[in-house]
Amino acid sequence: IMIQLQGPDITVLNRLAEQVLGQVRQVPGAVDVDLSTKGQKPELTVELNRGLAGSLGVTAAQVAQAMRPAFAGIDVGDWVDPSGETRDVYVRFNPEARSRTADLARVPLVLPGGPGGQATTLPLGQVATITRELGPAQINHLDRERVINVEANTQNRPLSEVVGDITTRLESVRMPVGYQLTFGGDTEDQTEVFGRIMFALGVAVMLMYLILVVQFGSFLDPLAILLSLPLSLIGVVLGLKIAGSTLNLMSMIGIIMLMGIVAKNAILLIDFAKWSKESGMSTRDALIEAGAIRLRPILMTTFALIAGMLPVALGRGEGAQFRAPMGIAIIGGVLTSTLLTLLVIPTVWELLDDMREAVLGRFRRTPSAGHGGGHGGGAHGVDRAIPVEPRLVGREPAHQGD
Fold first, then answer.
1. How many CA atoms lie within 13 A of 365 on its CB side?
2. How far apart (Å, rounded) are the C-alpha atoms in residues 399 and 402?
């Protein structure tokens, strides 16, 4: 988990980071909580007197070069030790001199030569002020602004639950104007991945509907079939809950696979009932016959699929715990969708069919022009059948042995 605090002033960011750090440490499941600055460390600040330095011809680059031998050291050559090894020689101040501001104030600055060409030296303390302060061990930037990250790992709790508790606690932290708090790390990646998966799921459902419209020649029949998709989500949630798993990347991939799997039961049922009704049966009798005849292939495909996904759901072998949520989601969704499809889908299809017949019946009994409202010997209205949905012809009803 990474909580990003952005703003212009590092002092304000440090104060906000400490508040956020205290809140995150109180959340159960958040471990290894720390700051990206790695704490405060002592540092020496050299502030140059720009006016005086400019009059003397001293630049900030010359001051940095003068400080380099004191801290980084300079290579002055090499020497051969008594064992015959050639070693590089670096010269720099000893640790005590590097920590005392008085010693650093006496670091000589070489000034440009005057009219006679003679170079002169000047102590650093005459053109700069050296102070000891506390500063961050590491400075990060994000989008050209300073940022401090409050970082944490999760333990014994799902990432989404820990982030939810953190978000609730952070509501008490007031952000000044010009400062913002955002989530990065795994939280940002999870949000982005879930967004793409939901988009892919929506596209998949839309393509399924359009294909079913073409195959069935109806806009209503596919709606009853697609109702089996949300029914499978009941089993997904129950399966993940019973197994103690979470809704993660693999379980979301399993849901996408499930959308294409569970629709086949409703397709088998509605397709048989549709053609049985077109052969002359009533809607109720066609559904009863379809349920009796198509029950066997529905159960066969369901049990075969469950058996195939059991090794994945059991989580055996290397990396199996990562793949197990996908198998659990598919098995749970197939079980509930199979049971509910046999009960809910026929009911919904019968309601849709009754609604379609009622709408068509209103248009079939339309009075003809010139005879509207005639009584006592007047001609009655002529029945006119107005086609609303295209019907596929030339296909024989499915046999009971299919």
1. 7
2. 6
Bridge partner list, 108: 123
pLDDT band of residue 355 (cuts 50, 70, 90) is confident
Q: At 389, is the secondary structure helix, strand, or coil?
A: coil
Closest to 257 (Cα-Cα) out of 314, 345, 337: 337
Query: In the structure encoding, which two tokens stand for residue 68, read together?
Result: 């380099």
Cross-strand pairs, 110? 121
What residue type is 140 in one-letter code?
N
Q: With a threshold of 0.70, does the pTM exceed it?
A: no
Whether residue 312 contacts residue 326, with contact meaning beta carbons closer than 8 Å, is answered with yes
Concatenated DSSP letters of 97-136: HHH-HHHHHT-EEEEPP-TT---EEEEGGGTEEEEEEEEE
Tokens 């509930």 appear where? 336
Phi, psi of 141 (to 5 degrees): -130, 145
Contact (Cβ atoms closer than 8 angstroms) between residue 193 and residue 249: yes
Contact 350, 283 (CB under 8 A): yes
- Nearest CA to 302 among 265, 272, 266, 275? 265
Neighbours of 260 (CB within 10 A): 13
